[in-house]
Amino acid sequence: MKEVLKRGLTSFALSAFAGLLVNLIIDIVMSSVLKTGFISMSPDYVALFPSVTIAAYVNVLLYGVIGATFSLAAYIYEVEKIGFIIQSIIYFVITSSVCVGITILLWQLHKYPAAFISTLAGYLATHIIMMVIEYRRLKADIKVINELSAEE
Asked: Which residues span the domain enclosing 39?
């Protein structure tokens, strides 16, 4: 359990820092090009908070939550009694619930149905691609193990 929490906290910190860094770079570049006070957050999202600063802090925290979710949910693949397809479905449900929920909040997707649907489709497509790649990798690993067992 200690290792799980350590991994989750590390992923939280790395994701929060990466999100902060990306937003900072976008803000600096866009402000220098546009010569205005550009911020890389949805105005509708910022309006949910008493100040832009608090909105930015919550934004960074939410990036951390996304990273921790992906990291902690990956432990489902270490449960040997559950098959790969079930593990993948559980992983998808957990990560999509958290990440899509946060994305809806950050980008205010509930106000933009086309953007909401395309975000969901992109997320689903990404997970399907990941599952196919992982399945092929697992299949190749099993083939190698079977070949080694046959040689003995």
From this structure: 2-109
